[in-house]
Design goal:
The protein is of the alpha/beta class and 215 residues long. The protein has 9 helices and 7 strands, in the order αααββαβαβαβαβαβα. The chain folds into 2 domains: 9-57, Orthogonal Bundle (Helicase, Ruva Protein, domain 3), CATH 1.10.8.420; 60-214, Dna Topoisomerase Vi A Subunit, Chain: A, domain 2. It has helices at 9-19, 26-37, 41-57, 74-77, 92-99, 128-137, 151-164, 189-197, 211-214; strands at 59-60, 67-68, 82-89, 106-110, 142-145, 170-173, 200-201. The protein has a 5-stranded mixed β-sheet. A two-stranded antiparallel sheet has the order 1-2.
């Protein structure tokens, strides 16, 4: 039975819906619900409409799997971008993080995660096959592996490097300004820009040692 903390069942349901979002607790959800209640109905309707349209009409780019309003995203359609360079990332959040630096003008490929046996995520669960088809089907000079500095990220980079080497001139990985265990999403723009700028050939890559191996 729902807790009768609030006098209104409708308010309770609104708070629970808002609190289900990541990073929003009960207190914040309560303040947001009251804020919406104090606005004209059109204000809430506009927010609800934007969310519904976003959820129902958004696409995954046919080429890179980034989000898009159309079948092919604006980055892949942009003739000013360097189609000979592909930056491989785990998620769409990483695309936004790199784009915010303004330092990269190539294309992307969103894997949808990293290989993680402990979480039952294998190569077949990611957009790896699509990546190989892309480099086989177009003139790609370099693939930059911009994955998180974790054991899973490092393992995925090694796996991808073996598949990519026969098809591209250069496979590289971003420099480790992003701390071990860190994700691009939480790194600052300068650190990301430097990591891309000072990327290194995959031949220089060494699997990040586990903590117990360093003892």
């Amino acid at each position: 039975m729902r807790d009768k903390m609030y006098s209104s069942e409708l308010l309770q349901r609104a708070i629970e819906a808002l609190a289900s979002l990541p990073g929003i607790g009960q207190r914040t959800a309560y303040r947001l619900a009251l804020h919406l209640l104090n606005q004209p109905p059109s204000y809430t309707e506009e927010i609800a409409s934007a969310l519904l349209n976003f959820r129902q009409k958004i696409h995954r780019c046919l080429h890179c799997h980034h989000i898009s309003d159309e079948e092919v995203c604006a980055i892949c359609r942009d003739p000013q971008r360097d189609s000979g360079t592909i930056c491989v990332v785990e998620s769409i959040r990483d695309v936004f993080s790199i784009e915010s630096t303004g330092s990269y003008r190539g294309h992307y490929h969103v894997l949808g995660g990293v290989i993680s046996p402990i979480n039952d995520v294998g190569p077949e669960d990611l957009y790896i096959e699509d990546l190989i088809k892309r480099v086989e089907g177009q003139e790609v000079r370099e693939v930059i592996l911009a994955l998180s500095a974790t054991i899973e990220g490092d393992t995925t980079m090694q796996y991808l490097a073996r598949l990519l080497r026969p098809h591209v001139e250069r496979v590289s990985f971003i420099s480790r300004g992003v701390a071990f265990g860190g994700e691009l999403e939480y790194a600052d723009e300068w650190t990301i820009a430097q990591a891309i700028r000072f990327r290194r050939p995959i031949e220089d890559f060494a699997l990040t040692p586990r903590a117990e191996d360093e003892e």
